Amino acid sequence: MQTDTPPPAKLGKIIAVWGASGSPGKTTIAVGMANELAEAGKTVTLIDLDLEASSTGVLLGLGDSPGGIAAAARLAGHSRFDSEQLHRLATPVSSGKRSFQLLGGLVAADRWAEIAPDRAEEVIMVAAENSEFVVVDLGSSLESNLRDVTTGLDRNKVTKQTLTMADQIITVCLADPVGISRYLRAIDQLVELRPGGQILCVVNRMRASVLGSSAKQQVTETLGRMAQITVDCFIPDDPAAADFALRQAVPISHAKRTSLARMAISVLTKTLVLGERSQLDRRLAKLG
User: 168-174 and 13-19 as β-strands: parallel, antiparallel, unpaired?
Assistant: First the structure.
């Protein structure tokens, strides 16, 4: 007797958030995107896979939350990580009337060898089977010469592997001469990993105080001339809202709904991730 085979579960969209070294603000943007997606009614898992400097837990006031990615990876190593374990280990983060779930990062950077690439992939895939969107906050380094002396694992293999499997990559460039220089040096390595992949450029903390009145034009021309990169979104600098969000340990949208930075992250999420149109497009396009 022939039986119908159920169709495979539809995987959620995997979004990798990456930036060059120097704190360009990728964690703030990853948290902000997860929050905006949740507010849009989507089921969201945010995974902190920054094995160099995990910070989502601190940013959200969770401190060194137990479990998280380390516990998930251990279970994945024994083929025991599933939807039940995901929901047990993930921490719910309130987003108004909705919430997203966070798999927090490592409590100590020297434990990175616990997160083998195959285990990290399994964790991401289980999250994608149980969420409409999986946002992954990644470390900056893409070098291949850093290995654990005991296991031989490449420290940055998890970052590189996640970038290759992501449906969409959000790259974050800090809008000052140092941030732009670091971004330009690092972006070539990323493009080599994903030739032809969907790589988007977000320029963060746009401010005339550093680059002058034509800041937006300068950044656009520099990235275009030096690396043939088109800027997909500018995030205005809003230090008051950012500082308040840090002090209250909440996403920036909870700190100040009318923050220009928050509105830009909302536009980024709605237009580039959800494919919607936003009434804020024209207003934000004039900034910088």
Answer: parallel
Distance, first Cα to last Cα, the chain: 66
Tens of pLDDT, residue by residue over 15-67, are 999 999 998 999 999 999 999 999 999 999 999 999 988 989 888 988 755 56
Report angle CA 249, 119, 171 to the nearest 5 degrees.
50
Task: Give the predicted TM-score (pTM) of the model.
Answer: 0.90
Indicate left, alpha or beta for 38 from its phi (over 0: left) and psi (-120 to 50: alpha): alpha
Q: Which alpha helices (DSSP H) does the chain contain, by range?
A: 26-39, 56-59, 68-77, 83-89, 117-130, 157-165, 177-193, 208-211, 215-227, 239-248, 252-255, 260-267, 281-285
Dig out the tokens for 15 from the structure: 């979004």
83/62 Cα distance (integer angstroms): 22
Q: Please calculate the CA angle 95-99-102 and round it to the nearest 5 degrees.
A: 110
Length in residues, the chain:
288
What is the maximal distance between C-alpha atoms in the chain?
74
The pLDDT value given to residue 248: 85
pLDDT digits over 237-258, tens only? 999 988 888 888 888 888 777 8
Phi/psi at 112 (5° precision)? -60, -30
